[in-house]
């Protein structure tokens, strides 16, 4: 049985706990205090003058397009924020995948994270997230390194039971994608992705969905000092205003909107044609200026004039506006 799977001496100071009525089981330090949590997860705090906190949660996803362990990163990083190159590890002969990483959480905390995904074909994935929250005041606590190592071992031993899915479920319809290591965003799961030279091209199979083309450009200025940051912001502002006035002298309607952190979203819509077919073009520029670099992500969505006013095209435009607005732009982005 699971309770006896560890050496008794090793397990003596760690107690078994369960999530969601036994859907998931793992071990936590025996002398840590249970903290109230109202979202179905578990929370514990270590003893002592400078405690650390342990948070454990379960998220169950349902993907109507089917689930495959080879696409584990889509469930282990739904936020699409992990650095490029992090790939899930896997257990031999097991449909489990896991990742581990640490991040700084301003103003004064480090977070160590372990995520384990268990695939339940045809359409469900369960993901357990274990987070150790370490404030700066606790970074010198005795045994912290050993605690982190042990939590990694316990995360690897997490047991997913065969209980049917009765817990809350999040439906997955969007896929994380990227282009050029400089922009990350989402498109519908069933859209096809292709490369056309320097462009990334995305489109659905349903008639009237149109085609999305994406290009990225980055301009660096010397060593990224304060003066160079000013140059990067100036170029960003000028480029956004010119884009909204009509890229390449096109005639249409444009606008500029400044977002948080000094990022920008510029829009432009115009009519045109391709191979003699009348089209409507919707263009977006998402830009950032940071560390002496201006990064520009250009999105172009083309749909036939006939389909433009239809329900499908309008829903697609609304989706693209939302996803482009929340895209991650800059050197921290990474292509999937």
Please characterize this protein's 3D structure.
Strands 3, 4, 5, 6, 7, 8, 9 and 11 form an 8-stranded mixed beta sheet that branches. This protein has a 7-stranded antiparallel beta sheet with strand order 14-15-16-20-19-18-17, sandwiched between helices. A 3-stranded antiparallel beta sheet has the order 1-2-10. By secondary structure, it is α+β, with helices and mostly antiparallel strands. It has helices spanning 8-11, 73-76, 144-156, 226-245, 305-308, 311-325; strands at 14-19, 24-29, 33-35, 42-45, 53-62, 89-90, 96-105, 109-120, 124-135, 159-160, 169-171, 174-179, 183-188, 192-196, 199-203, 211-220, 253-258, 264-274, 277-290, 293-304, 328-329.
- Give the percentage of residues in beta strands: 35-45%
* Morphology: globular
Assigned CATH superfamily of the largest domain:
Mog1/PsbP, alpha/beta/alpha sandwich
Number of domains: 2
Q: Please give the count of helices.
A: 6
Which ranges are low-confidence, i.e. pLDDT below 50, for 5 or more consecutive residues? 1-10
Main sheet specs: 8 strands, mixed
Regarding CATH, which class of the largest domain?
Answer: Alpha Beta
- H/E order of the elements? HEEEEEHEEEEHEEEEEEEHEEEEHHE
Q: Would you give the CATH topology of the largest domain?
A: Protein Transport Mog1p, Chain A
């Amino acid at each position: 049985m699971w309770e006896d799977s560890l050496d008794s001496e090793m397990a003596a100071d760690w107690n078994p706990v369960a999530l969601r009525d036994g859907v998931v089981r793992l071990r936590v330090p025996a002398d840590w205090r249970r903290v109230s949590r109202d979202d179905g997860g578990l929370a514990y705090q270590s003893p002592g003058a400078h405690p650390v906190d342990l948070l454990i949660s379960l998220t169950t996803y349902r993907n109507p397009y089917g689930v495959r362990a080879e696409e584990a990163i889509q469930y282990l990083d739904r936020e699409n924020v992990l650095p490029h190159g992090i790939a899930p590890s896997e257990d031999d002969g097991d449909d489990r995948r896991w990742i581990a990483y640490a991040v700084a959480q301003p103003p004064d905390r480090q977070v160590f994270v372990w995520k384990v995904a268990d695939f339940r074909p045809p359409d469900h994935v369960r993901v357990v997230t274990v987070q150790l929250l370490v404030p700066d005041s606790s970074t010198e606590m005795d045994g912290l390194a050993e605690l982190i190592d042990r939590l990694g071992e316990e995360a690897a031993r997490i047991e997913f039971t065969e209980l049917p899915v009765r817990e809350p479920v999040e439906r997955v319809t969007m896929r994380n994608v990227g282009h050029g290591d400089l922009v990350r965003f989402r498109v519908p799961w069933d859209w096809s992705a292709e490369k056309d030279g320097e462009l990334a091209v995305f489109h659905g199979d349903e008639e009237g969905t149109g085609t999305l083309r994406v290009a990225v450009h980055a301009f660096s200025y010397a060593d990224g000092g304060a003066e160079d940051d000013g140059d990067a912001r100036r170029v960003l502002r000028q480029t956004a205003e010119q884009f909204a006035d009509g890229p390449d002298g096109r005639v249409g309607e444009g606008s500029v909107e400044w977002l948080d952190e000094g990022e920008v979203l510029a829009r432009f819509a115009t009519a045109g044609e391709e191979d003699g077919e009348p089209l409507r073009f919707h263009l977006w520029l998402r830009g950032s200026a940071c560390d002496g670099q201006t990064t520009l992500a250009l999105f172009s969505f083309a749909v036939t004039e006939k389909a433009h006013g239809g329900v499908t095209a309008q829903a697609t435009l609304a989706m693209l506006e939302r996803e482009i607005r929340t895209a991650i732009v800059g050197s921290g982005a990474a292509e999937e």
